[in-house]
């Protein structure tokens, strides 16, 4: 046991040394607030959607365009959509100021060392890594010693935390997966330092807001900062974060910037978990389904056919009289090429630059990610899951890829935390919610409400190479 513990500790210390990151300002945020979504949202994403809420992308083409075009419709979307440009503008000055000063001053607390004695606590055997992350997130209010004097609290915490092994079983391995690091050199050759931008991209519900928050809070292009031009980190790529790669040259959010200067950082999420999430909030993805009765529905069954007939018979009024919720109604009223003969539920997705049709949700997933993976321009693809359990490593590698630097004082800041004031370490509530994520994340039933036919279809249709590349495996009995 001693040997194992030592190697665990050595691993942690080594990681820290390698990253040259001092572990101080780790702020967990609203991403982990689950009240936002009435308890339906996956803990990892709850709040990562930021200002978005379940109702924001309600039905219909107008909303869809807005979802994909939020930068041009600020007025209407002010209270409804995650208007990232507005957020960015509001926050950027203080963050940049903060970064400049933080990079000059030495870190205030050497946190990794302070928790190390407690890593040997028998109740935390196999949970050392999570304990370390919690500590970095200032869960112990910088006084682990005090906390560890209270046996009852220590016991309760130990009970709540899963083992690192449980976590890595779900993650598919010990290390984060970052695809595309081999394209960094090309990017740096193509784009002069002063012009370099990181921009976030990703399919709906894959953690693009979380990724953007982490990058904005921790990474900067020093050349641009020195020239007074900003940090060179954007909430989305200039062609729109959800836009498929084929539209890279077709849309410009910031007219002054060339789209080619962006290094896209693309987020991906376990496809089954992604489908579960789309059942809670589908954004501008349309497919015929009743979210309350069968979702994800890949292979239509009697429930789907029953509803299709219902819609044919009773129409809009019938549906609306049953479901006053425009979301639920729209998922039925917009049949999106579904018919009684459909063997698979087809999908239509509206993007700003065009509408795409897919055979199914897995087909949409394969196709969206393949466009980025097969692209002939430099890009990185990172996993949402790693943004929770390997945030520092992922952010550091991504930032280095552009030639940028990561702040000394790694920070998980997002919308709620204001840089430079007392919230620098995140709200207490956020830190408590982090425990909820740690406790719940690995226990999600990723095939919830799927029939065996749905699961069989997902297994045969999800691209095996894509899954392998990101170490995602199909849910199993042992790992549901
Ligand atoms: C940290 O401080 C807050 C506010 O004083 C308190 O509610 C919380 O329980 C403390 N956390 C720990 C782990 O002691
Ligand atoms: C679905 O319907 C639209 C318009 O009705 C059509 O343009 C499109 O080709 C159809 N897609 C498929 C896959 O059948
Ligand atoms: C997950 O959900 C499926 C479908 O709803 C159900 O059959 C299965 O028993 C659940 N698995 C676990 C481990 O709860
Ligand atoms: C999905 O959920 C609905 C409502 O909870 C339930 O009626 C239905 O049987 C579920 N289907 C499966 C396959 O779990």
What does this entry look like structurally?
44% of the residues lie in helices and 8% in strands. The chain has 21 helices and ten strands. A hairpin with a 2-residue loop joins strand 7 and strand 8. One 2-acetamido-2-deoxy-beta-D-glucopyranose binds next to loops.
Give the number of helices.
21
What distance separates the N and C termini?
Answer: 30 Å
Percent range of helical residues: 40-55%
Radius of gyration: 23 Å
| Strand proportion | 5-15%
The helix/strand class is alpha/beta
Low-confidence stretches: 12-112, 413-425
Report the average pLDDT across residues.
78
In total, the number of strands is 10
Biggest β-sheet strands, sense, barrel: 5 strands, mixed
Biased composition (Low complexity): 68-79
Transmembrane segments: 12-31
Region (Disordered): 61-101
Keywords: Membrane, Transmembrane, Transmembrane helix
Which features would summarize this protein structure in a list?
480 residues, alpha/beta, five-stranded mixed beta sheet, three-stranded antiparallel beta sheet, 21 helices, 10 strands, binds 2-acetamido-2-deoxy-beta-D-glucopyranose
């Amino acid at each position: 046991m001693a040997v194992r513990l030592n190697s665990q500790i050595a691993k942690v210390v080594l990681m820290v040394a390698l990253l040259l990151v001092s572990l101080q300002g780790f702020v967990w945020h609203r991403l982990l607030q689950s009240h936002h979504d009435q308890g339906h949202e996956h803990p990892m994403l709850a709040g990562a959607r930021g200002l978005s809420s379940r109702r924001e992308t309600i039905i219909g083409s107008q909303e869809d365009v807005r979802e994909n075009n939020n930068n041009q419709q600020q007025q209407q979307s002010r209270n409804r959509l995650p208007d990232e440009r507005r957020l960015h503008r509001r926050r950027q000055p203080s963050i940049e100021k903060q970064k400049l000063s933080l990079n000059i001053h030495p870190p205030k607390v050497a946190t990794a060392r302070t928790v190390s004695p407690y890593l040997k606590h028998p109740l935390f055997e196999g949970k050392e890594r999570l304990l370390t992350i919690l500590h970095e997130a200032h869960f112990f209010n910088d006084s682990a010693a005090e906390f560890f004097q209270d046996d009852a609290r220590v016991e309760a915490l130990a009970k709540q935390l899963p083992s690192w092994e449980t976590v890595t079983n779900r993650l598919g391995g010990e290390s984060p997966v970052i695809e595309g690091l081999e394209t960094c050199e090309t990017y740096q050759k193509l784009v002069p330092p002063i012009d370099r931008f990181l921009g976030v991209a990703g399919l709906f519900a894959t953690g693009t807001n979380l990724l953007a928050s982490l990058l904005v809070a921790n990474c900067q292009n020093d050349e641009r900062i020195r020239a007074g031009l900003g940090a060179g980190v954007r909430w989305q790529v200039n062609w729109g974060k959800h836009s498929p790669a084929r539209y890279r040259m077709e849309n410009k959010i910031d007219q002054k910037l060339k789209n080619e200067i962006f290094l896209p950082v693309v987020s991906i999420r376990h496809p089954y978990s992604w489908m579960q999430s789309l059942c809670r909030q589908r954004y501008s993805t349309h497919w015929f389904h009743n979210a309350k009765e069968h979702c994800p529905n890949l292979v239509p069954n009697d429930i789907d056919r029953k509803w299709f007939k219902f819609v044919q018979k009773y129409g809009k009024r019938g549906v609306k009289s049953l479901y006053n919720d425009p979301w639920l109604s729209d998922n039925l009223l917009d049949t999106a090429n579904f018919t009684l003969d459909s063997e698979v539920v087809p999908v239509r997705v509206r993007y700003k630059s065009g509408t795409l049709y897919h055979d199914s949700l897995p087909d949409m997933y394969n196709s969206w990610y393949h466009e980025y993976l097969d692209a002939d321009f430099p890009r990185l693809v990172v996993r949402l899951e790693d943004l929770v359990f390997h945030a520092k490593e992922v952010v550091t590698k991504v930032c280095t890829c552009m030639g940028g630097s990561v702040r000394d004082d790694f920070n998980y800041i997002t919308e709620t935390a204001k840089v430079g004031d007392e919230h620098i370490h995140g709200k207490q509530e956020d830190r408590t919610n982090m425990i909820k994520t740690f406790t719940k994340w690995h226990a999600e039933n990723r095939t919830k409400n799927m029939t065996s036919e749905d699961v069989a279809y997902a297994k045969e249709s999800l691209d095996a190479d894509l899954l392998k590349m990101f170490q995602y495996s199909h849910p199993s009995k042992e790992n549901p």
